[in-house]
């Protein structure tokens, strides 16, 4: 059993109707789990279709479901993020929160605690080119943010309803293959026009560590994702041929006063080993898709994206999950939850 789980979490008020479903507990002899879905999803996501996607994911490391969400649902997700940003603008943001996967530790050096605390919060991270030489933002806030993360699904009612919908639960169990999944991290990724930075080749199991490794993801296209605006690229089959031997970890040491009372934490984020692997990039394919489509992929699938030099934004929303059955959450993970906001078991959450 993974640590830090809340068997029951406070029931969140649902202010935005994205996917309204009620779970059915029945499972078929084959292990297929049935969930009550909307009519349009019921027609598309048949048992045969989902099993085909699961086979494709097992073979290639990823599978795409085109046009899963309608425009109304996607626009509601985007509108909710606009509201979150507007509220944040009124209170101010941490200007040290610069994000880059190319030299992440270098840019985190002034804000390690901000990064580590984001596992339990809704936190904001700028693109590395968000500021000019005088320290001023080069554009509106929503055009220079890299991402917002990492606990929207447990803190924001609209994202809670989207992420814990029966649609997502069905995909988690019947395509990704989870038995008792936990949604540990969500990210709203901006990839804004002109400034949206590249993401180097990587595997998500590097950053989300369980024993055994079990991370898998659902990536939702909130805009059309094309080669022009920095769509994801991936290497089919790489989840089978590229073992995980590179991890990002964190350490927090409690510092006490002479009388033994708590003073502060000294925090660090580091990689083991220090140098990243040399990924062989060949036979790569662009994962181009329309707004409302999704890609589901294995945590060992090698993927990346280029800088968005185009005039078109490429927003996306990512959900990272791990297994909890016979699985241990690594104490070395950078991503940890505070006691007042523990990890939740997906199947126990109301949509």
CATH-scheme architecture: Sandwich
Write out the strand line-up for the largest beta sheet, numbering strands in chain order.
Answer: 4-16-11-18-8-7-6-5
Largest sheet: 8 strands, mixed
Number of domains: 1
Q: Rg, please?
A: 20 Å
Write down the overall geometry.
globular
In the CATH scheme, the class would be Mainly Beta
Helix content, binned percent: 10-25%
> What percentage of amino acids are in beta strands?
25-35%
Helix-strand makeup class: alpha+beta
CATH superfamily: q2cbj1_9rhob like domain
* Number of continuous helical runs: 10
- Report the end-to-end length measured between terminal Cα atoms: 23 Å
Keywords: Iron, Metal-binding
Pfam families: PhyH
Organism: Euplotes crassus
Protein name: Phytanoyl-CoA dioxygenase
Topology:
Elements: E1 5-6, E2 23-27, E3 33-35, H1 39-44, H2 47-60, E4 62-65, H3 71-91, E5 98-99, H4 104-108, H5 112-117, E6 122-127, H6 141-144, E7 145-150, H7 152-155, H8 157-163, H9 166-174, E8 181-189, E9 199-202, E10 210-211, E11 216-221, E12 232-234, H10 238-241, E13 247-256, E14 262-272, E15 285-286, E16 294-298, E17 303-305, E18 316-323, E19 328-329, E20 343-344
Parallel strand pairs: 1-20, 5-6
Antiparallel strand pairs: 2-3, 4-16, 6-7, 7-8, 8-18, 9-17, 10-19, 11-16, 11-18, 12-15, 12-17, 13-14
Protein name: Phytanoyl-CoA dioxygenase
GO molecular function: metal ion binding
Organism: Euplotes crassus
